[in-house]
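Progress against Task 2.4 (sequence-to-structure conversion) is shown through the following example record, which the project officer requested during the mid-term review.
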Amino acid sequence: MPDPHDLPDYSEADLTVGHQKEYAAGIKAVGISMKRALAHMGPVRTAQTLTRLNQAEGFDCMSCAWPDPEVGHRHTAEFCENGAKAVAEEATTARATPEFFAAHSIAELDARSEWWLGQQGRLTHPLVKRPGATHYAPIEWDEAFALIGDELNALGSPHEATFYTSGRASNESAFAYQLFVRAFGTNNRPDCSNMCHESTSVGLAESIGIGKASVSIEDVHQAQLIIVAGQNPGTNHPRMLSALEIAKRNGATIVAINPLREAGLTRFKNPQRPSGVVGDGTKIADLHLPIKVNGDQALFQALGSLLVEWDALDHDFIATHTTGFEAWKAHVGAVDWNRVTDVTGLTRAQITELGQLLRDSSATVFCWAMGLTQHRNGVATIRDVCNLAFAQGNIGKPGAGLFPVRGHSNVQGDRTMGIWERPPQNFLDALQLEFGFDPPRAHGLDAVDSIRALRDGQAHVFIGLGGNFVQAAPDTEVVIEAMRRARLTVHISTKLNRSHLVCGRTALILPTKGRTEKDVQASGEQWISVEDSTCAVHASRGPLKPASPHLKSEVDIVCRMAQATLGDRYGIDWTAMREDYGVIRGHISRVVAGCESYEVNVRRPGGFVMPHPPRDTRTFPTRSGRAEFAVSPIEAIQAPPGHLVLQTLRSHDQYNTTIYGLSDRYRGIEGGRKVIFLNAQDIAAGGFSDGQHVDIETHWPDDDVVRCVRAFRIVAYDTPAGSAAAYYPETSPLIPLDSTALESNTPTSKSVIVRLLPAGQGHEHQVADESQDATGSDWDHKWEPDVEEHLS
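C-alpha cells generated for the chain above:
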C-alpha cells in the first residue's frame, strides 16, 4: 500500500456522473471487495480476517447488525462488499503514529476531507492536545487516565459531563461503561441510537412493550409478504438481500416503499449463486411505491382504512391481545384520501394495490430504517406500522412481525446493556442489588441535549466511546462550537476522524483495539459479545496481532478510567473486570433481564436469542398488558413554493460517517460526494440544469438562522417531485439542532426544507436580519397535522 501520508486529497472537480444501476452486488462487488482488502491489508491479513468474518468461532462484522444464519448454514464468505470494506479499514497496515501528528497541526488536518483522514491508518499511541497547543503529542496511559479522573472529579456535579457511545462497543465494554458513569453519578448516556432508531425504540415500547424486532431471520425467509419501507438494504444492510432472495424463492412478495428507486431493491445478483454470476440474478421488489419524503405515515393510515373497509382483520387477535382498536378503526375509517394522495405523491390505485397484497397475505413482515424514524412524526409513524401489524395479527407467529433493521453492529446490544439516558427502573434496581449503590434515577442527556448542554456551558467534559460524534450529529457548526467550549474532550478510537480535530481546551485520543484483533489480558486471551437486530447474542474473537503494542481494549480503557475517577468507591472491582471479561459477564447475568447464565449461553456456537414476549408468547409488557393501537393525526412537512424537502443519506462507499471511497456506483456517482439528487421537474422549475452547481440553503425560523452548504452538483434522478437527497455528513450542517422528532428527540435528518441558489449566491451561516427575510420567501413550514381531532 502506498504511504497514506503522501496520498493527495480528492477534488470534487474529478466527480463524474453515470447511469443509475439496475442491480446490486454481482461479480463486480466481489472484485471491489478483494481489491480494497488486498490494498489495505495484503493477502495474508485478508485471508486471516475475511475467512473468520461472521463465523461462529470468528469475529462479528463491525458494520451493520444484520443477523447471521444458523451455524452450519453459513457460507465460507459470510460477508458483503461493505463488510469487507469495514474490515479492510480496521485491519489496514497503515499507521497514524505520533510522528504523523508531530508533522501535521490540528488545523492542517482539519482542512482535509473525512476520506483522507480515514486513510491515514490505525492510531498507535495515546495522544493529548494541551491548552493552547496546535498539535497532538504523545502521552502515557497512566497520565491520560489521571487527567480524566482529575477533570471529572473537579466538576461541580457529575451531570456536567456527558458520555457518548457508538454502536461498535461490545456488550462487555458497554456494561462496564454504563456502570462507571452511573457510579460516577449521572445518566448522561447519549448514544448513536439517539440519532437514528430512537423513534423506533420509543414507538415500539409504547405499542408492544419492547423496543426490538419481533422476528427472526427465519421469519423473513417464511414470510408471504415483506414490506421494506424507508430502507436501502443494498448499501446499508447488503446481507439482507440474501435473505430476501431466499424469501422470493419461497414465494414471498416484496414491496419497496422509498422515494428513490434503489438498485438493491430492484435486482440482486448473488455472487454465491450461478445466476448471480452469469445470469440475471433475482428480482427483489415486485412493487415499488415512490413515496414523497415523509409520506409514510399517511400511507400506513390509508392502508389501515382499506383493511377496515374490506374487513381484512384478525378479529381473534384483536380481541384477545390488543386494546384501542375501536378508536383506531374510527380514525382510519375517516381518512382524507385527498390529503393522503397529496402527502404521499401516490395514486389511490397504487395504494390500493399494496392494500390488496396486505389483505391477501397471512404472514407479513414489516421492515424499516431511517427513512421512517428521522422525521418529526417518526414515533407516530412507527406506531402506525404497528397498527397495521396488529390489525392482521402479524406478530408472534411464523413469517410475520416487526423488523427495525439496525444500522450499527451492536447498537441494540449497547442499549440492552444499559447504554440509555432513560434507563428503566428495574434495570437500576438490579444494578443497585448487584453493586450496592443507588444509581441516579433522573433521566440524563441524550445526544441532542448533550450538544445543548455543551453549547450553553452546562456541561464541560465529553467522553466518546467510539464513533465520530461531530460528523454524526446535526447542525455541524453548532456542534463544533459546543465541543470547543468543553474543558476536556476524550475520544476512544481506532482511526483518526473529524471529531478528534474539534478539541476542547484539553483533548485526548485513546487508541483502542478493534474487533479484528486479539485481546490478551492478565487472565489470558479474551473475547467479547454482541447482539444483532433480531435479539441474537453471540461471541466475537479477533484473529490479528494488535496494530500497536500501545493499544488497549475498550474494556481496559473504560475500567482504568473508572479506577482513576472513582478509586475504590462502592468496592467495585474494576481490576478484576478488565483482567477477565468473564467477571463482567457474571455481572451481566445478574443485572440484565434475559441474560441469566450469560457466560454459558453466549459460549454456544451461534450464541442465544434474548427473550421477546410479543414474539415468543404474544404477551405484551405495555401499560395495559396488551398490544396498543394508537391514534395519531396525519402529519407531513410542508415546503413553501420554490423549496424542496431534503433527505440525507449514505453513499454506497461509506458506513455511517466513515468514508471508504468515492464510488456510489449504484447511483452512478464516481470521484466525489457533493451532489444533490433531484427530479427533472424540480430542476426545470428552479431554472437550473442537470450538472449545474448550486448552494443549498435552509432557514429555520425557530432560531432565525440561515444555514448553507456550497457547490453541490445537481444530478437528475428518479425521485418524486419535491423530494431531494444528498449525502451526509456533507449536508449535516443544514439540519437544525432543534428540529427533532416528537417524543424521541431524534434529529429530523430526512425532513430538511431547503432552497437552491446558483453556486456562490448562498448566504453565509448567520443569524438572519429580522427586518428582511434572508430567503426572500415565506418560511411558514410548520408541521400541519390533519384537522381531525386526535382520538385517544
